[in-house]
Write a structure and sequence with these properties.
Elements lengths: L1 E5 L3 H13 L3 E5 L2 H10 L4 E5 L7 H10 L6 E5 L4 H9 L4 E4 L4 H15 L6 E4 L2 E4 L4 E4 L2 E3 L3 H12 L7 H9 L7 H15 L4 E4 L3 E4 L6
Parallel strand pairs: 1-2, 1-3, 3-4, 4-5
Antiparallel strand pairs: 6-7, 7-8, 8-9, 10-11
Bound molecules: calcium ion.
Amino acid sequence: MRILIVEDDERLARNLMEALQAAGFVAEHEREGKAAWFRGEVEDYDAIILDLGLPGLDGLTILRRWREAGVKVPVLVLTARGDWTDRVTGIEAGADDYLPKPFQMEEVLARLRAILRRTAGQAAPVWAVGDIEIDAGRQQIKVAGNLIDFTPHEYRLVCYLAHKAGRPVSQSELLDHLYGDDSAYTTNSIEVLVGRVRRKLGAGRIETRRGYGYALAGGGAG
Ligand code: CA
């Protein structure tokens, strides 16, 4: 999952980056409002963490502009402590959730996972696709009831395919969402990764749709 953190407090941004990366997310950071607005419009993120007080352009204006432009990415808004007007305005502007500062990193991660689950149409804390169960809190995957050992990249691949619920995902989309800006990886890396995950998941669980990409079997009508 590829997450954009929009936060002008460098220390907080660094802590968020580290917490998200440790939890298996691809995290990117932007500190300036206009640049954040642009990135949210043209780049494809799975979720955005948005501070409201930003240099250049404030977070609420950015959020309104994204929603007016049809950008549907889930947004978790960071608000000043006790400022209920910010929370109300934020939700009305199209935020999916908010978190008052200061907060614990565990709470950011829990809320982020919850909005990602809701976006994927899953309410329970463990995602199930066919006989594959993903426990995002523990970063564990079970297949037919058996716990399988996955590397962080393999885990991200299964999560991303599960998140797309049967919609085929292209190699270039996977590159963006699994590896972010790291140019050391190519579509060839994706093929190798998919091959490894296929072997671990067992036959028939990742389908190749010619001309479209990969999809998790049993993940919906896609
Ligand atoms: Ca700020």
